[in-house]
Amino acid sequence: MAVGRGARAQRHRLELLRDRALIRTLYCTAMRRAEVASLDRADVQDGRADQALVTGKGEKERVVFFDAGTLAAIRAYLRMRNDGYAPLFLRHDTGRGAPGPSGMRYRITTLTVWNVVKRYARAVGVQASPHAFRHDKASVMLNQGAKLSEVQDILGHASPETTKKIYAHYETAHLRDAFDRYSVPAETRVTRLPGSPGGPETPRTRRR
Question: Residue 83: which residues within 8 A CB-CB, separation 6 or more?
């Protein structure tokens, strides 16, 4: 019985560490759930590489970036795992069967990613999905001044039109901000014209 309880506690701890690393990866990188599920530990050099090359929709490759907190969560999970299986994120339930070559049969699925996000969202009383992390990441970056073209590359959108369709209102907000900060009303502009009341004096013509 004690052995059984210990094994359950071990699996529970592994799942908690995995879920923390998984959720941080979703937000940090803005990857799709299929991309996250497909990650191998070699892609991030066991949590030591701050960027990775991933293949997204349409077999399009892009570089994704990791922050220090996400890498630390990945390393903590891998230390607890203490195995040599290739997938970065594994199943830890008792029904997972045999590992297969390099542990490939233990790799989590997109459904696992979905369920993990939904479970923790319910626990804190919010509505969330894996895609919500992508949307929030893009929204935060645009609010901080990132360009639409930069966000397009980070999200892995094949066409800039996709990014514009979803996030064009942020670009409009930035343009409005620039307009409000730098535009000058006609009345103010007139007062700055040479020779106008309050404007700069025009040079007088010297008589000969």
Answer: 103
What's the pLDDT score for residue 148? 79
Provide the residue count of the chain.
Answer: 208
The reported pLDDT for the residue numbered 158 is 72
CATH superfamily of the domain spanning 1-127: Intergrase catalytic core (1.10.443.10)
How far is residue 178's CA from residue 119's CA, in Å, rounded to a whole number?
42
Asked if residue 107 lies in contact with residue 92, where contact means CB atoms within 8 angstroms, the answer is no
Asked if pLDDT for residue 36 goes beyond 90, the answer is: yes
| The model's pTM | 0.77
Copy the structure tokens of residue 174.
Answer: 């930035």
Nearest to 92 by CA among 80, 101, 102: 80
Q: Which residues are marked as active site?
A: 32, 57, 131, 134, 157, 167
Alpha helices by DSSP H, listed for the chain, are 2-29, 33-37, 68-81, 110-124, 130-143, 148-155, 160-182, 186-191
How is residue 50 written in tokens?
Answer: 């701050």
pLDDT value for 167: 65
15-29, 66-80, 191-205: least confident range: 191-205
Per-residue pLDDT at 176 exceeds 80: no
Q: CATH 1.10.443.10 residue ranges in the chain?
A: 1-127
